[in-house]
């Protein structure tokens, strides 16, 4: 077996680290099916708004999700295809 020393997996490793937290994994999984605002996310997860906002900020900073302003609300959606693939592989087919 040989390893290719020229390959860099920095981005992939970063995505895995970020998605390694259950709350962030739930957020990304939920946003894969529909865009949501912060209020809907924290209501669905039954977590404090501040907690959800911290997780959203990290996901945004790592370019996994993106927010789109609609009036006073910001709706989030997944922009990272790599993250989509990882979550889909972890969760498998859903009924």
TrEMBL record:
Xref: Gene3D superfamilies: Winged helix-like DNA-binding domain superfamily/Winged helix DNA-binding domain
Positions of the HTH arsR-type domain: 4-95
PANTHER family (alphabetical): ARSENICAL RESISTANCE OPERON REPRESSOR ARSR-RELATED
Keyword list, A-Z: DNA-binding, Transcription, Transcription regulation
NCBIfam families in UniProt: HTH_metalloreg
Phylogenetic classification of the source organism: Bacteria, Pseudomonadati, Thermodesulfobacteriota, Desulfuromonadia, Desulfuromonadales
InterPro entries according to UniProt: ArsR-like_HTH (IPR011991), HTH_ArsR_DNA-bd_dom (IPR001845), Metal_resp_trans_reg (IPR051011), WH-like_DNA-bd_sf (IPR036388), WH_DNA-bd_sf (IPR036390)
Protein's recorded name: Metalloregulator ArsR/SmtB family transcription factor
Pfam families for this protein: HTH_5
Claim: Repressor is one of the keywords in the record: no
Classification via PROSITE patterns: HTH_ARSR_2
């Amino acid at each position: 077996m040989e390893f290719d020393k020229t390959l860099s997996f920095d981005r992939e490793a970063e995505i895995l680290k970020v998605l390694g937290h259950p709350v962030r994994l739930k957020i990304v999984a939920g946003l894969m099916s529909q865009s949501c605002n912060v209020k809907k996310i924290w209501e669905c997860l039954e977590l404090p708004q501040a907690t959800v906002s911290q997780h959203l900020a990290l996901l945004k900073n790592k370019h996994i999700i993106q927010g789109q302003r609609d009036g006073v609300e910001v709706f989030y959606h997944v922009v990272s295809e790599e993250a989509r693939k990882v979550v889909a592989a972890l969760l498998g087919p859903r009924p």
